[in-house]
């Protein structure tokens, strides 16, 4: 198993560097540069050239990438042009709220999708099956940003039950109850937006398992239907469901960027959005490193799960 994990890690290394190179190139190709933030005509050509030299933008693209890469190996992601702080410090500040939002959304999606998918597979063409179909269609048809706007309109503007933005009522922070009130809407949007795919996978896996011979045998022995489903079918069905959840986590991370921006949630998504719009290149690259590592680690975890479940994967038989 250790050799299998080493092989997967070695495969992930060029992927990581490929991602950083691609993002670095796209940032360089984007129109405008840092000096444009000063406003049109606010700085002379000489002043702009001096500013570019001060931040290293006068160097060729390959040189700038190698300098950034050398800083990454030293643990130095540079300084933010906009905030005037170390990028690593900004990321440490923002990664906690993002993990809280994404993690809560994933837990909520699983808590809704797995029981509903099992119930829908247990009673096909029944009420649970119709409800599951509604969730699946809605999750595929309704974009997350639209769901966020509807949630704000209903629960914040019309009903006034929940706050529409921020993480706390005051800038300095608040208590746990205040945090939970601000978390409900964005985490609910992240969770509900991702229920459909997990539910569909759960229902399909359960339907397949419920048709196996050992399930038919368990029913023939007179076991109660609930015991057959929970004890015998659910364990086998959850293996592909777990795979689906792990595969879906990078998509949830990407979707949370839009949700964070709409709800003003102070996480990595909001930071990346501000950095891209403000041409804060060091922050863009630092956020790219974090998100790329999150996706690659999730992929590695998925490969490990595959290897534990099916030994043929470890030995390269498929």
From TrEMBL:
InterPro entries: BPD_transp_1_N, MetI-like, MetI-like_sf. It comes from Candidatus Intestinimonas merdavium. It is a multi-pass membrane protein. Keywords: Cell membrane, Membrane, Transmembrane, Transmembrane helix, Transport. One of its GO terms (biological process) is transmembrane transport. SUPFAM superfamilies: MetI-like (SSF161098). Residues 95-302 form the ABC transmembrane type-1 domain. It holds the Pfam family BPD_transp_1. This is ABC transporter permease. The chain crosses the membrane at residues 9-27, 99-122, 134-155, 283-309. Belongs to the binding-protein-dependent transport system permease family. PANTHER family: ABC TRANSPORTER PERMEASE PROTEIN (PTHR43163:SF9), DIPEPTIDE TRANSPORT SYSTEM PERMEASE PROTEIN DPPB-RELATED (PTHR43163). One of its GO terms (cellular component) is plasma membrane. PROSITE patterns: ABC_TM1. CDD domains: TM_PBP2. It is found in: Cell membrane.
């Amino acid at each position: 198993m250790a050799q299998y994990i080493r092989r997967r890690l070695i495969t992930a290394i060029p992927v990581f560097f490929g991602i950083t190179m691609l993002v670095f190139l796209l940032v360089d190709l984007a129109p405008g540069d840092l000096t444009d933030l000063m406003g049109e005509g606010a700085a002379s050509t000489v002043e702009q050239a001096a500013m570019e030299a001060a931040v290293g933008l006068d160097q060729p693209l390959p040189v700038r990438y190698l300098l950034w890469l050398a800083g990454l190996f030293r643990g130095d992601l540079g300084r933010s042009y906009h905030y005037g702080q170390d990028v690593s410090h900004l990321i440490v500040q923002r990664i906690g709220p993002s993990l809280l939002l994404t993690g809560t959304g994933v837990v909520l999606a699983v808590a809704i999708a797995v029981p509903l998918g099992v119930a829908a597979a247990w009673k096909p063409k029944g009420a649970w099956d119709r409800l599951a179909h509604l969730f699946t269609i809605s999750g595929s048809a309704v974009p997350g940003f639209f769901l966020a706007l509807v949630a704000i309109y209903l629960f914040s503007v019309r009903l006034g039950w929940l706050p529409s933005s921020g993480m706390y009522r005051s800038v300095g922070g608040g208590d746990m109850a205040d945090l939970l009130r601000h978390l409900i809407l964005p985490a609910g949007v992240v969770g509900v937006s991702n229920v459909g795919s997990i539910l569909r996978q759960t229902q399909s896996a359960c339907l397949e398992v419920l048709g196996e011979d050992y399930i038919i045998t368990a029913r023939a022995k007179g076991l109660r239907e609930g015991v057959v489903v929970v004890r015998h079918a659910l364990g086998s069905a959850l293996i592909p469901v777990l795979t689906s959840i792990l595969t879906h986590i990078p998509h949830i991370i990407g979707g949370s960027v839009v949700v964070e921006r709409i709800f003003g949630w102070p996480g990595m998504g909001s930071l990346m959005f501000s950095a891209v719009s403000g041409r804060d290149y060091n922050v863009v690259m630092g956020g790219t490193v974090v998100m790329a590592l999150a996706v690659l680690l999730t992929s590695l975890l998925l490969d490990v799960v595959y290897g534990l479940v099916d030994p043929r994967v470890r030995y390269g038989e498929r």
